């Protein structure tokens, strides 16, 4: 049985000794090397080589040695008859995403003559009561999340954030409460409180999935009952009941839940409250994120969660134990960057801004309870938490009250904000909405943040300063037969006019930046949008028009990916050019289209533009985008004003 002998605290971070055999040898086809030499770095000395027979590793693996099983798996991936070298050691986790505190890693690096260096990296964790816990900081998951201990650990994360996170905004304990909140002082009978826009104090918010189930809501007919008598917890759906219990357990009084704090039968109240949702989540003390619940009837506190299954469990020998007796276990987990579990909340449209806007959140996902703020994402109880790739707003746009505007942003910060917006679109557009009219309103709170920090004008999903580049979005991934909604919700030139995932082409801007004086663009003459409600400047639109001045050429659709344009050159010859195209809606691809270049390189083969369909009114609508490597077809054609709805 292989032992892992960890360094004592006095030895330094990078030292490790082990009986694991490293490698330098030739092996027969299908077998492990006959001789293995492993280099084990040690902070106390230059290093040591240990030699062992490959057969010994193979035999130990057969007998169940977890370490040798993993080493055997790695070695089998090496080319046969190569001399192979393996190094093993400890190092600090290099984390480019910066959202998860650095943890110690165990690495296995494999090198061979005909194979570039490869890395097999593992994160280590152990139980809090294990002797190895003195040396290994990461713990097993906390899976019971309804206990007083789980709430204590959550409070510990909140306290650390409030006390030491320089990039996290401290809560304003005198902020104005939303118009209505639930008083959770008695979790068995929470009451609806009307604040009249004058009451102040901290409050929590809930982010959750409604689901298809009917649930209790506040309406004009029962609001008086909810205010005067409260709502018995037995009447609340489990998800909201759990949120009330969490609020009370965290020693907080007020909770905002849209189902109970918005009059669900009043369109006027919905418009007013939904237009302020950005502020509600942004100024909350904390958001409870019920990530794993697919509907309100499921709840999130008492759902079963599985303990992590390690790749290997290594016997641990305490370096301070002179007898050398194995007294503990260290668990290995494969190291990888992480976007979080694919929980139901990650598929809903409204919940993206409910995750990006709050200053801090408790995420009840299908693995454990995680604390999420503008500095880090960690599992409670120091449980192992993979480096996070979760989307976040940049610091400039992430503060509760953005103070920087475009004139104060450096070029680097402006680019960071721009890339963040494009990432928001990529993350938001695949998500689903119960009401197709909510495509723009469900992102309005995030848009408000970007508008504050950039000072730019928002145009139904696009930005005036980068309008030409924003026009070149493309639908990607599996395309359903009907991409466009049944009723108008955005102009055809906006990504909000289609269902499904949209890809803003960031590399077009990067390419254009290198064109210099060869960059050519269409000219924007005018662009306007008409809002459904003036109090919701970033919400639903009911009309819009874009006017551009550009070259336009008629084309014929050859298939789902090709458009052909033809023209007569100066010598009277018929010319044709085939262009690649990506259509927004496969169900309604017209036969005859118009090709309009938006950006191109006068000196090289780079053309990107819109595919339009002419309407009976003489105006046009977007049906896709095209790209071409030839500019011959543009010569000799005059520009004209094109109106796109």
Automatic annotation (TrEMBL):
Residues 203-354 form the Heterokaryon incompatibility domain. Residues 1-27 are annotated as: Disordered. InterPro entries: HET. Residues 1-20 have a biased composition (Polar residues). This is Heterokaryon incompatibility protein-domain-containing protein. It comes from Apiosordaria backusii.
């Amino acid at each position: 049985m292989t032992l892992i002998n960890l360094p004592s605290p006095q030895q330094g971070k990078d030292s490790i000794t082990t009986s694991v055999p490293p490698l330098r040898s030739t092996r027969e086809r299908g077998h492990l090397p006959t001789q293995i030499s492993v280099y084990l770095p040690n902070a106390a000395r230059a290093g040591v080589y240990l030699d062992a027979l490959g057969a010994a590793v193979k035999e130990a693996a057969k007998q169940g040695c977890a370490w040798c099983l993993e080493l055997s798996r790695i070695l089998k991936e090496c080319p046969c008859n190569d001399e192979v070298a393996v190094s093993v050691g400890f190092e600090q986790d290099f984390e480019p995403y910066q959202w998860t505190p650095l943890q110690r890693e165990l690495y296995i690096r494999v090198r061979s003559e005909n194979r570039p260096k490869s890395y097999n990296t593992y994160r280590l964790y152990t139980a809090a009561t294990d002797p190895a816990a003195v040396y290994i900081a990461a713990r097993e998951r906390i899976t019971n999340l309804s206990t007083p201990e789980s709430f204590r650990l959550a409070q510990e994360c909140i306290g650390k954030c409030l006390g030491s996170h320089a990039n996290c905004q401290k809560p304003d304990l005198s902020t104005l409460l939303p118009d209505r909140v639930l008083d959770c002082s008695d979790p068995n009978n929470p009451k609806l409180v009307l604040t009249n826009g004058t009451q102040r104090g901290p409050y929590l918010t809930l982010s959750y999935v409604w689901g298809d189930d009917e649930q209790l809501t506040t309406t004009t007919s029962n609001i008086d009952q909810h205010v005067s008598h409260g709502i018995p917890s037995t009447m609340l759906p489990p998800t909201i009941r759990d949120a009330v219990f969490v609020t009370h357990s965290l020693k907080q009084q007020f909770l905002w839940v849209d189902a109970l704090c918005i009059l669900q039968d009043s369109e006027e109240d919905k418009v007013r409250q939904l237009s302020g949702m950005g502020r509600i989540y942004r100024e909350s003390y904390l958001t409870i994120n019920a990530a794993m619940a697919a509907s309100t009837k499921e709840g999130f506190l008492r759902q079963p969660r599985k303990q992590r299954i390690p790749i290997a469990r290594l016997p641990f020998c305490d370096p301070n134990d002179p007898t050398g007796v194995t007294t503990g276990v260290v668990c290995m987990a494969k190291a990888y960057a992480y976007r979080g579990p694919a929980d139901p909340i990650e598929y809903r449209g409204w919940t993206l801004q409910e995750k990006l806007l709050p200053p801090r959140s408790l995420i009840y996902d299908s693995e454990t309870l995680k604390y999420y703020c503008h500095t880090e994402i960690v599992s409670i109880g120091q449980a192992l938490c993979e480096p996070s790739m979760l989307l976040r707003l940049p610091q400039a746009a992430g503060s509760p009250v953005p103070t920087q505007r475009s004139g104060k942003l450096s070029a680097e910060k402006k680019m960071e904000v721009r890339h963040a917006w494009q990432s928001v679109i990529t993350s938001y557009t695949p998500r689903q909405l119960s009401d197709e009219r909510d495509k723009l309103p469900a992102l309005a709170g995030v848009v408000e943040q970007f508008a504050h920090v950039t000072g730019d004008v928002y145009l139904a999903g696009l930005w005036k300063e980068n309008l030409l580049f924003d026009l070149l979005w493309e639908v990607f991934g599996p395309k359903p037969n009907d991409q466009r909604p049944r009723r108008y919700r955005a102009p055809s030139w906006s990504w909000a006019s289609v269902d499904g995932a949209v890809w803003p082409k960031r590399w077009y801007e990067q390419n254009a930046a290198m064109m210099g004086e060869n960059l050519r663009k269409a000219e924007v003459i005018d662009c306007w949008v008409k809002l459904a409600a003036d109090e919701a400047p970033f919400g639903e639109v009911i009309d819009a028009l874009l006017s551009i001045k550009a070259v336009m050429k008629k084309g014929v659709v050859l298939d789902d990916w090709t458009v052909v344009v033809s023209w007569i050159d100066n010598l009277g010859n018929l010319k044709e050019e085939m262009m690649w195209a990506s259509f927004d809606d496969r169900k309604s691809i017209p036969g005859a289209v118009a090709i309009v270049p938006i950006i191109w390189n006068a000196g090289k083969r780079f053309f990107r533009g819109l595919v339009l369909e002419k309407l009976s009114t003489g105006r046009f609508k977007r049906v896709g985008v095209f790209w071409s490597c030839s500019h011959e077809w543009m010569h000799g054609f005059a520009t004209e004003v094109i109106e796109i709805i």
